[in-house]
Amino acid sequence: MTERAARRPRWWAELSLIAVVYAAYSGGRLLARGDVGGAVEHGLAILRLEQALHLNAEHPLNRLFTSTPALGIPADFAYASLHYLVTPAVLVWLFRRRPGRYRAARTWLMLSTLLGLVGFTLLPTCPPRLLDAGHGFVDTMAQFSAYGWWGAEASAPRGMGGMTNQYAAMPSLHVGWALWCGVMLWRHGRTPLFRALGVAYPLLTVVVVMGTANHYFLDAVAGAAVMGLGLLLTAPALRLADRVRTTLPGGEAPVRSPIVGGGCETSAGERIPGQRSSTDSADDTTAWGLPSSGDAASVGEAR
């Protein structure tokens, strides 16, 4: 069995795991609606803090998007759809093309998503578009709803606004997921185009969420912070999962990378073509901040 085949998880198990986590996230997001009055107060507090720190970029961006349909309409489509399209696409790409990296990347994304749910629960926040009109924000998705599938209640399809929590704004997982996608494209893409997309996509998402009045700038900052915390928890979570798996009846030990050229002899200093040195592996491990061996780290790139 090749290293690529040995390292790639079972697709059906991965699909089931992702479905369960996303269902738990969606259900918990709906249950964490919180008090509307409290959500409005939280939103106003964030707005006042931003104004005090001179970070209030939402107003000029929102005015630009509402006065320029050529910007506002594409931004609404981007807000309503890209996180549902790009994030799964990057997951599938990693699964197929970078299987040695997939497990750690998937765990990072899932942990950060669940941490975001904690934020929605503890700090329900009214987005700028739902504040009183006197605060100067216009809901671009409501303004341009005739051009898309959404209505006046967030990005949900018309008539389904009750199935979404409009006060789940802090942190912004639109930004968090976009940052995760950007890191994956930058680290594992092998062309300048992939790296350029890795930089552009998170930045574009930050502009879109503010210009459409769906998030404050500090929501975006919190989304990035949640992803950072999720990354720190990834290695311990993988080690714990492997320990649990090995203690279960019929559990298997973590898959180790096969010894390339085992049983073959080469002259001193000679490397088999395609063989990776220990330095190469150490560089990958250091960059991820994960353990250096075993599938628990999931950091060895398949060749």
Q: Rg, please?
A: 22 Å
Global structural class? mainly alpha
The tally of helices reads 11
Unreliable residue stretches? 1-6, 256-303
Plain-language structure description:
The chain has 303 residues and is mainly α. It is built from 11 helices and no strands. The radius of gyration is 22 Å and the shape is globular. The N terminus and C terminus are likely disordered.
Quick gist of this model?
The protein has 303 residues and is mostly helical. The protein has helices at 3-7, 11-31, 36-52, 58-67, 69-97, 99-122, 140-143, 173-188, 192-211, 217-247, 278-288. Helix 2 (11-31) runs parallel beside helix 6 (99-122) and helix 6 (99-122) runs antiparallel to helix 8 (173-188).
Compile the SSE list and pairings.
Layout: H1 3-7, H2 11-31, H3 36-52, H4 58-67, H5 69-97, H6 99-122, H7 140-143, H8 173-188, H9 192-211, H10 217-247, H11 278-288
Helix pairs in contact: 2-6, 4-5, 5-6, 5-8, 5-9, 6-8, 6-10, 8-9, 8-10
What attributes does this structure have?
303 residues, mainly alpha, disordered N terminus
